[in-house]
Amino acid sequence: MTSRGQGAQPGGSVEAVVARRVNPLSVIGGFVDKTLAMSEFEVRKIRHDPTEIIMRAVQPVIWLLIFGEVFTHFRAIPTGNVRYIDFLTPGVLAQSTLFIAIFSGITLIWERDLGIVHKFLVSPTSRGALALGKALSGGVRGLPQAVLIFILAVILKVQINWNPLALLGVLATVLIGATAFTSLSMIVAFLVKTRERFMGIGQVLTMPLFFASSAIYPISVMPRWLQVIAHINPLTYQVDASRRLMLAHGVSTYGLGLDFGVLIFSAVVLVIIAARLYPNIGR
Fold first, then answer.
1. Which positions ≥6 away from 31 have C-beta within 8 Å?
2. I need a surface site. Which of 25, 103, 135, 193 has the fewest CB within 10 A?
3. CA 236 to each of CA 41, 192, 233: distance values in angstroms, whole numbers, following the listed order
4. What is the distance of C-alpha 29 from the center of its chain?
5. Coil vs helix vs strand at 162
6. How many other C-beta atoms can be found within 10 angstroms of the C-beta atom of residue 234?
7. Domain of 108?
8. CA distance readout (Å), 116 to 5, 40, 119, 121, 135
9. What digits encode the pLDDT tens for the residues 208-231?
10. DSSP run (H or E) holding 84
């Protein structure tokens, strides 16, 4: 037997073995599997302790039942031919998504203190899969809020668009928006590294993001400087897409293409930054 034959691999030539090892499809498949495993790990926490979802449900109930009902009767905010409670409901949905996502990064600090983050960092799972998995879990956390708000909307006689594709579109805005804001929350956790500072910065971020958007009033009533901020705020585009898809007579200011484009772009950029910073949480 020649030396070439002696060096042959049982599964084929060396070139074939190397080709199989760097098969792009297997690399992508592995990345997806690890991302979903990370998301499942995070979602499992909610299943074992659903109190976070229950507590977060209080805020949208207050906004819709008190703020929405009162201002619907006053007609103090110009919303055209749309009742204010109808105008507000998609904004409250986006707000709930934001509030759940923006504080989810604190779990990273807890995991670091418990030593869980270090186990993830020494695992073969890529930093991108770790960051994306955690970000997607934030989107899953927002889905129960969407169901709750739809139930409240029915009770309050909001004119809902029940087209199945429109409903799927609303859930897509929740998932993508929560993924983006969860990534932002992770970035904050990577930079501050302490629970106290994280909670302080989280409070500082949520209010400007919420009020500098079209969630509770049209952008046209804002002062010029605030309109500029609203136009670069991803939450504005999440609200705009949700309002167009969720309401029976909803309209979009920017168009669904731009709305989803901004949301997806924001999510991708923030996930990439979070993946680059992920090792910082272990230091």
1. 126, 128, 129
2. 25
3. 31, 27, 6
4. 23
5. coil
6. 23
7. 14-282
8. 48, 16, 5, 9, 17
9. 899 999 998 899 889 999 999 999
10. helix 84-102
Distance set, CA 35 to CA 46, 221, 228 (Å): 17, 42, 36
Q: Which residue has the tokens 């998995």?
A: 133
Which tokens sit at 257? 């293409």
Q: Are 77 and 117 in contact (CB under 8 A)?
A: no
**190 assigned to some structural domain:** yes
With respect to residue 211, please indicate whether it lies within any of the assigned structural domains: yes
Residue 8 dihedral angles phi and psi, to the nearest 5°:
-70, 145
Does 8 fall in a domain? no
- Which class for 236: exposed (0-12), middle (13-18), buried (19 or more C-beta within 10 A)? buried
- Give the closest residue to 78 by CA, choosing from 87, 89, 90: 87
Inside any domain, residue 235: yes
CA distance 93 to 63: 10
CA distance 72 to 16: 69
- Would you write out the chain's pLDDT as a tens digit for each of its 283 residues? 444 444 444 545 544 544 455 567 666 767 677 777 777 766 676 666 666 666 777 778 888 888 887 777 776 677 778 888 899 999 999 988 898 888 888 888 887 777 777 777 777 777 778 888 888 888 788 888 888 899 999 998 999 999 999 999 999 999 999 999 999 998 998 888 788 888 888 888 888 899 999 998 899 889 999 999 999 999 999 999 999 999 988 888 899 999 999 999 999 999 999 888 877 665 6
Q: What is the DSSP letter of 105?
A: T
Triad 271, 275, 281: Cα angle to 5° = 120
> Structurally, how many domains does the chain consist of?
1
